[in-house]
From TrEMBL:
Highest taxon, organism lineage: Bacteria
Lineage of source species: Bacteria, Pseudomonadati, Pseudomonadota, Alphaproteobacteria, Hyphomicrobiales
Alphabetized InterPro entries for the sequence: Rieske_2Fe-2S, Rieske_2Fe-2S_sf
The name this protein goes by in its record: 2Fe-2S ferredoxin
Residues in Rieske domain copies: 4-115
Organism of origin: Bradyrhizobium icense
Length: 137
């Protein structure tokens, strides 16, 4: 498994998403209330750009006439046919046994863990002779 640095945390505030192409795979990274999740940007139903759909919540009912709206901003709705998937797990709410959006693990790591250094640039000696700038290779 190859690690990919996506962005500084500040560039992806809560409630936003970032679209990427990683090794030929369209992936979206979501910040849901300070937690980060990755989903393949392809609906398993018919291949729409799933992650371009609206973020919604989940309507649940335990008794007739009582509806509770939960998981606000944690469900993505496919822009083509309205299929809904949990961003945290990729689970489908339309047909959970047959369809699941591919989820990718996303971590937040300190910069010192992902940036290797110190970097050293190649230097070339430069001198000035009789008003001419000369580079020695």
């Amino acid at each position: 498994m190859t690690r990919h640095v996506i962005a500084p945390v500040d560039e992806l505030p809560p409630g936003t998403r970032k679209f990427l192409d990683i090794d030929g795979r369209p992936i979206a990274i979501f910040n849901i209330k300070g937690e980060f999740f990755g989903l393949l940007n392809r609906c398993p139903h018919q291949g729409a750009a799933l992650c371009e759909g609206p973020l919604i919540g989940l309507a649940q009912s335990s008794n007739p006439g009582e509806i509770e709206y939960t998981k606000l901003g944690e469900i993505i709705r496919c822009p083509w046919h309205g299929w809904e998937f949990d961003i945290r797990t990729g689970q489908s709410y339309c047909d959970p046994k047959r369809f699941r959006a591919r989820a990718y693990p996303v971590n937040v790591e300190p910069g010192s863990a992902v940036v290797k250094g110190p970097y050293v640039a190649e230097t070339i000696a430069v001198s000035v002779e009789s008003d001419y700038v000369v580079v020695d290779l």
